[in-house]
Amino acid sequence: MGGDNAPEEVVAGAVAAVREHGARLVLVGQAPRIRQQLDLHGVAGEIPIVHADEALGMGEGALASWRKPRSSVAIACHLIRQGRASALVSAGGTAGVVATSRLRLKGQQGVMRPAIAVALPTRPRPTVLLDAGATSDVRPETLVQFAALGTAYAEITTGLQRPRVGLLNIGSEPGKGDKVTRKAYELLSSGQPGIEFVGNVEGDQLLSGVADVIVTDGFTGNVALKTMEGAVRMAFGELRASLSSARTARLGAALQRRQLRELRDRLDSETYGGGVLLGLNGTVVIAHGAAGARGITSACVLAQRLAAGAIVDRIRDHVAATRTSRFRRQHGEKEQPDPGQP
Amino acid sequence: MGGDNAPEEVVAGAVAAVREHGARLVLVGQAPRIRQQLDLHGVAGEIPIVHADEALGMGEGALASWRKPRSSVAIACHLIRQGRASALVSAGGTAGVVATSRLRLKGQQGVMRPAIAVALPTRPRPTVLLDAGATSDVRPETLVQFAALGTAYAEITTGLQRPRVGLLNIGSEPGKGDKVTRKAYELLSSGQPGIEFVGNVEGDQLLSGVADVIVTDGFTGNVALKTMEGAVRMAFGELRASLSSARTARLGAALQRRQLRELRDRLDSETYGGGVLLGLNGTVVIAHGAAGARGITSACVLAQRLAAGAIVDRIRDHVAATRTSRFRRQHGEKEQPDPGQP
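Above: the input entities. Below: the structure tokens describing the complete assembly.
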């Protein structure tokens, strides 16, 4: 029920995910409206529906998670907790979806804070940037855990054995950055089992493919992601203006219209799937609010893939291997005693 | 002596600033090499030279400011302290120039931390983003002061009476962001004399012109700026690849080559002047290390303009007007007693 185009485009995208990718889905929301849409696609009865009275509004933030215990997102979380679903997909507003899922699914054991992972359109394979906005205030240990979350995500989505992890920073050398980032660099470069740390990555390298996973706090990550979107949009806007301004150029523009559209599609945020909220007891894929059927289909396929890869278990193992021991002590988890110790 | 193209391009740019813009300059560096360049331009003897034995290397950071007390940047700072210059321009590495100027010029009274202001290529006039990397760890009061610094800078460079100030954040509503940004929003929206606060600005609005000044910490600002540069570079790279890949498109590409180059020049970081270090007892314009003569000329013209606008005095007045009183108390400055008080 979330997003600008629900339920029409959402149902259309879900139907395509079932038909073309063999996804197994449950649709959660206002049953009569969803059934009507399924009828239009001629698949009524083939895709199960779970009714939910309410839906989160696009502008609703954290409070909605308490006010609307029977929103479609809350019900979908309930299905995950019951073991009837492995992941959920929503095109609802990020703040409401994140707050509801955190409340209903809870953080998975050992994970300090959740993070939103986003796949940047680099070549030959996407680069995972996290956190894109779930956790603004972090500690150095949180960033180490984000490296573990991102490694698990990249392993499943790219098939890489040891994805390279970079730390978003304002210089390439050690000692650069703010206090939290400097300390995170120390922790990561001192060697974290299972994490292939390759050092600092600067803003202009986000799209260069120098790392498979790039770690930062949710404030910086969100600003960087939106800055990237705005800059690409501006570059294409300027290009359009430039192409139509010169008479000789207009011919060329006509010839290139198709190439330009394809290119913009690839770079446009709506086409590279949604963000994925990691670190909870269940995977939450947040599609773009303006996503059309195609965007919803890719979000469903991504959710299916992450569930098939057992992302929650993989995160648990990766996080357990990291040396974020201060956190372990503070949260009452005992360190493994050294068996050689008397 | 700084930058990739010193002294050739630096001297050429300085000569153009004198000839075409009536700038009054002193060249600081290795006198024989500078004199040789001036000879080539036929202006030997017309532009004064102050000799400096040493120069900061491009990779040198904060330590260089102590190790090289007679670097060209250190000598230029000395000229400012003596009142023989009003501002300095360098194409040297940012870390070394910032560290040397902070050590030699010292922070101006009442200013907690310096900030680097950069002009983003928005229309119809540039948007000032600060801090682009001088101060990574900030307090809310520091961001209020950055708003004062940016206001002073925008008033002089754009001629606006009340430039609109935005706070870089991860949502438009109050209450968004990390702890420091949330508190800074409170301070700014409670009304700061002389600052026209217009609210939060998101990453994708940096180039939209919704504010004349955008304030953030040096970590986020540096990441955002470099992300923007990387995204624009990538968009044009993709465009080039796309244009040459399709046979029908190749003709168009030939027709548009000039338009594309002009557009890229406008967006390219080297052409929109350098960053300006604000908040010290003297203005420091940091040109891009790869700047050619044209970049150096615009940096000199910018320095001249800021000095003519008495930027240091204007910053002092703007900062004094802000309500960053906790800072005043902590630094032993007495609040003005209320004359109506018994």
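Note for the figure: Chain A touches chain B through 61 residues (CB under 8 Å).
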